[in-house]
Design goal:
The chain contains three helices and no strands. It is mainly α. The longest helix has 23 residues. The chain is globular. The two termini are 13 Å apart.
Length: 83
């Protein structure tokens, strides 16, 4: 994450199985953070329509996504409070 002036504010390493871009997907807005794949990374793209369909058919998946979003909010708040 960078400031409006381009200064890096925070960075993190996503563990295997991470969902990236979830806030943008759920909020139906562009995702504003950047990810850089390292050697050996395997990535998959899942469309908004596919995710919406999965969430409708599997409420536990929807709950897991909410838990991931809550963890991201906590992490961001913690990082910003330590600046």
């Amino acid at each position: 994450m960078t400031s409006p002036t381009g200064e890096q504010l925070m960075s993190t390493q996503a563990p295997a199985g991470s969902l990236l871009g979830l806030p943008g997907l759920i909020g139906n807005e562009p995702y504003t953070l950047t990810a850089i794949a390292r050697n050996g990374a395997q990535l998959s793209f899942i469309s908004r329509d596919e995710v919406t369909s999965l969430m409708r058919t599997d409420p536990l998946l929807a709950l897991k996504m909410l838990q991931v979003l809550a963890a991201e909010v906590r992490s961001a708040r913690h990082a910003l409070s330590s600046l």
